[in-house]
Sequence to fold (288 residues):
Amino acid sequence: MKISAIFKEKKRTLSLEVFPPKTDSVYEKVEASVNEIAELKPDFMSVTYGAAGSTRKHTTAIASNIEKKGVTALAHLTCVNASEESIRTQVEDLAKAGIKNILALRGDLPEGVESTGDWIYKHASELIPVIKKYGDFCIGGACYPEKHPEAANLKTDIDNIRRKVDAGCEFLTTQMFFDNNIFYNYLYRLREAGVSVPVVAGIMPVTNAKQMERIIKLSQAFIPRRYIALLDKFSEEPAALKQAAIAYATDQIIDLLANDIGHIHIYTMNKPDVAAKIQENLSEIFKS
Ligand code: FAD
Fold:
């Protein structure tokens, strides 16, 4: 099913992100976790695309597997270092596998990898028409409540988001954020700029301190003092930290829903127990 149709049908949705295996040797292990997450029957599941296409066949296989489990899949696709031919092949493979939704992304050039002459589509907004040329998909894109790290300022970044929507992006999923006020401000500015597509709030339950260090480095997300205190207090107690992170994410989601933000996406890090616990915490809320 197309995600645009799901959003038309349901005011509240809970979707879950998984990542595919980097190597063949761990395929079965990752597949088992993904299957467990699919058993939770979220509204849809997204499958990431490894840096510069390094997981292309596994992204397709995992997304196809999710569809076979009766859950709508959203396959990510990046254009960094990709030729039109390689994008066409991936898009056609996804269509053959029954995938109806693609998250169109630019991606990042991995450290130490040179740009090839093939890299002709410089932004996600340029990838969208290529996807449309080779298949009938509902296309989503990424957005950044704290601005994309390369953008000079939020206004420029939002102007570029509008370009993405004008190119055919039907919904946006946010980078993770830990302070809902940042999201509310951002949404207001998106709407002021004429961006009216659904915006899915991306929530990351950070269940270990190392993961948080990495996140701060990569996304430059603002971490509220309340979260820092929790990480400090429970960093040596993994089970306690996990429980506290799940509670924090649940609290964030309830606040979003209470403020009429209906579409929530959880970055599960392939952890079925974390996804299941958050879903359980919200079971009555998502019934209505
Ligand atoms: P773009 O929309 O192209 O924007 C990138 C930068 O270029 C921004 O600063 C923007 O303001 C600027 N820009 C955009 N259009 C123009 C223009 N026309 N002219 C000038 N400047 C412009 N990475 C992966 O490798 N695999 C994944 O599966 C993956 N999934 C993700 C899912 C989500 C929800 C998010 C938020 C990110 C994901 N990423 C993934 C990371 C993403 O690839 C990086 O953040 C990347 O740096 C930007 O991708 P984008 O699609 O947002 O790029």
